[in-house]
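Possible regression after last week's pipeline update?

I re-ran a chain I had predicted before the update to compare outputs. Posting the input and the new output here so someone can diff against the archived version. Not blocking, just want to make sure nothing changed silently.
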Amino acid sequence: MDNTLVYKANGKILLTGEYLVIDGASALAVPLKFGQTLKVEQSTDNLVYWRAIDVNGVWFEATISLPEFKIEMTSDESVANKAIMLLKAASTQNPEIIANNGYHLTFTLNYDRLFGFGSSSTLISLLAQFFKIDPFRFYSMVAKGSGYDIACAQFNSPFLYTRSGNKATIKPLNDFLPFGQNIYLVYQGHKQDTDSEIDNYQKVKSDAYKQMVESISNITFKIVKTKDLYTFAELLKQHELLIATLLNRQTIKDLRFSDFNGVIKSLGAWGGDFILAISSNPEEYIHEYFKDKQHNIVYNYNDIILTPSVVEHDTIISY
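New output (post-update):
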């Protein structure tokens, strides 16, 4: 009898509301076709064999003994310590899962792990599924941030995400961004640490952030309703200027892409991962422009987002 179990979690991008979503701004979140799976096979010993794979092959392995959570073997001690932290936190919520069992856990990303598409959030979601625990409460134990990425891991359509205290509202969207063929995600070549960026945001934000929360939410609401590419681009330009002011940084377009014919917006943790490029120019212009800037990984928005039919009702989650 085959006792193998397989779990799946979606990757994510946050189109609006970065940073301020932590403080209650309504944000526009998009689950991706990119994601991660977990294959679970029970073993006959009290060991967890942890293996992590991405499109480039195996990038991490560890053997962890139970119930001590001791590293027996690993290819990277710092990553192994994080794996132990996650296993310990999950086991406090449901200790029976690994009380008398060992497992082979194989995590597989269908993209490069250096992309900021949610390698950490999908990992947390997958472990929550394996341990049969609430993913949002688990997330609040082991990570910082708003939790929108955990929502993306299990929802299959774009949605509005608004967190207030220990609750968040997820409002699914239909017929969203009909001009997706004019939107591109461009990889800048390095990964930003989200938790570190959140720490920095908490240090630099002033009392002005309260007004910013309302302004960013209003921009998000307008973006959801627009069917016009020019209006969408102008709203994202306003959004970028507001976040730049909040963080006391230059916009990414002023800094690196001032001659781009269109709008450039930072995504997620500013300074790393992907940027959003919006232009009415042909696709050839987009690829040639960024190739000249040494950015060769460019995805069209329509090619990577999940867009199945969605439920009409809102979902309330608790942390």
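Follow-up from reviewer: compared with the archived run. Residues 180-304 form a domain with the Alpha-Beta Plaits fold (CATH 3.30.70.890). Marking as no regression found.
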